[in-house]
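ok so for the tutorial part 2 we go from a plain amino acid sequence to predicted C-alpha cells. step 1 is just haveing the sequence, like this:
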Amino acid sequence: MKHCNVTRRRLIQGVGASVLLPLPVWASEKEFAIRNKKGSDILNRALFEKSFWDDSTKTQYSQKNHDEIRLKSMDNGYLTYISGCGDRDFSIENVAEAVFWHQKELPNHMAGAVACTLLGSGTDSVIQQKYTDTFLLGDFDFFYSTYFQRMYRFDLADGRVVLPFEIIPRSFVSSEEWKMFQGRKQELIESTKDKRRGFLFGDVLDMAELYGMYVVSPGDVHKSRVTMIARLRFGGDSWIADFGSKLPFVLRAGLANGFRAHVDIVKKVMSGTYKR
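step 2 — the prediction. this is what the C-alpha cells look like for a chain of 276 residues:
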C-alpha cells in the first residue's frame, strides 16, 4: 500500500477535482451503485478489481496536496484518478461532509467553476441512498459546459465512505423539479454573462457523459486519504467538445486544481465557516 507522505480558471482543472485512495481492500461484489449501470460497473471495478488500473499512465508527485494522478484510456477519452491526503489531518467525516454538501462553494475556490448551486437533497427512490443535487457551470478554457449532478453517500463496512455521482437526466425527477432545474440553469447562465470571458467558439455545451466517485478512507500518515475518479465527455459535434475529454495535460491540471479547491473547502467546513 502506498503511504501518504506528501510532506481558476479552468473547470477542467477541477471537475474531477478530487481524489482516490490507494484501494487497500478488494471485493468480489458491488458495494455501492449509481443509476447509470455502465458507470456503476466501471466504478466498482475501479475500486475493487486489483488489475483495473494496470494499463493506466501514472504520475507521482511530492510536496503537494495530492501524490498520484492516473489516466486510463477509455472510449475516446479517459477515466481520471487523483489521490492524496491534503498534507494535513482531516477526519473522514469532515471530508465526506465537505464533498457531499458543499460542492456549491467551488466558485469561491476555483475560477473554472463559474457558477454552482445546490438544487435539493433527499433519498433516491432507486438507489435507496441519501443524495444531493447540484448544478454547475464550468469554464473549460475553450468553451463552457453545464451539468446537473446527483451525488450519493455509501458508508462501507470497512470504514470508508464512497460518494459516487452521475448526471441527472429528465427521468430522475418530477416535472415540477425539472422545470425548476431548467429555470435555475437559465438564471445562472444569464447572471454570469458579464463574468464569463469572451471566447472564440461560442456555445455553452451540456455535458454528454459524467460519472465518478470520491472515496474517503483512513490514511497512513494523516487521518484520511481521498481519491476521486471521474469520467466526463462533452456534448456537441465539433472537435471542441472532444478537446477537453482527451488532452492528458489539461486533465492533469484540472484534477490538481480541483483537488486544491476541495482541500480549501474542507478547511472551511472544519473551521465552521461553511455550514449546511
